[in-house]
Task: structure prediction
Amino acid sequence: MDCIFCKIVNGEIPTKKVYENENMLGFYDVSPQAPVHILLIPKEHITSAADISKENSLVVAHIFEVASKLSKELNLSDGFRIVTNCGESAGQSVKHLHFHLMGGRNFSWPPG
Ligand code: AMP
Result:
């Protein structure tokens, strides 16, 4: 499968990692939209949030647990945002489930 995030998981494409365990990976976004912009992904290929199921959802809970931990380590106590874009109309450009953890600036609501 020609998936850029699977290639990152396999080490074929280099990234600046911030967290890794057997199930998930956290690395800096190559095109940051905030002073802190990290992507948290399952190592298993899950296409999007629409493909989260009873069988694979444990890693999603783990990703949020790590997001909480990283928010403290990266001094995001003022606030941060976790976003997952799902599908074309939401602007998902990489078809491997990922959560953007962003902080270090103010965010508007609703998002554009
Ligand atoms: P989305 O548009 O929500 O699918 O987010 C995909 C994100 O992946 C974008 O913010 C990209 O900047 C980021 N991205 C794409 N390729 C890489 C890469 N090789 N390393 C780090 N981040 C990447």
The radius of gyration is 14 Å. The CA atoms of residues 66 and 72 lie 10 Å apart. The mean pLDDT is 97.
